[in-house]
Amino acid sequence: MCVNPTCASAGHYVAVMCAYPNGCPAYPPGISPANSSYDAGQPVCVKVPFDYPNTAEVVGILGQ
Q: With contact defined as beta carbons under 8 Å apart, do 52 and 15 qualify?
């Protein structure tokens, strides 16, 4: 819960958006990270520069 919400200062930022090619890295029921060979793959990421404040959506397209 935010008690004292604040906004970022106006400026130029970079959003980093990532996704896993083999799906969510959540472990199947009964499998823990300590004893699992489950592999969600390496995340694929894209960096999207944007200015704040701005009314436009920040959109990232992976795999380009």
A: no
